[in-house]
Design a protein that fits this description.
The chain is mainly alpha-helical and 138 residues long. The chain has one domain. Helix 2 crosses helix 3. The longest helix is centred in the middle third of the chain and has 29 residues.
């Protein structure tokens, strides 16, 4: 009988739930640890999806493995922007700041723009947002 090893994400979720039950992880004040564990599971799944989709973009761009963790970090930061209930303009402005920051660290703008567009439907290209802002001002 062969037992399949658990997926890493599933082990992380189970370990977090066990730490909550044991009081080793910070609990919510209302004591709803089951809901807390469920939200953690959703976050793990979302992170896994972001990493997989980012990996596909990076593979298509032909980037070497050694730089991929930096693009993953950029994508996760964009994910935080997308998750917050901000206006589209605020998301675009914060996204531009992220692009500037990561470009100064050596990441390629066109790849970051592609990640933002494909994963979060966020157009960070200057010409695209300029036309959007002009339409709003009219």
């Amino acid at each position: 009988m062969h037992i399949e090893p658990k997926e890493r994400a599933q082990r992380m979720i189970e370990n977090y739930a066990a730490r909550l039950r044991a009081g080793q992880a910070t609990r919510r004040r209302d004591g709803l640890t089951r809901a807390q564990a469920e939200r953690y599971a959703v976050a793990v799944a979302r992170t896994k999806w972001i990493r997989a989709e980012t990996g596909a973009v990076l593979a298509a761009a032909g980037l070497p493995m050694i730089v991929r963790p930096f693009y993953y970090s950029f994508a996760l930061k964009l994910g935080r922007l997308d998750r917050n209930a901000w206006s589209e303009r605020a998301k675009w402005e914060e996204g531009q700041i992220l692009v500037q920051t990561w470009a100064s660290r050596g990441l390629r703008r066109e790849v970051m723009y592609r990640i933002a567009e494909k994963l979060f439907n966020l157009s960070l290209g200057r010409s695209e947002m300029a036309s959007c802002l002009e339409k709003r001002q009219e």
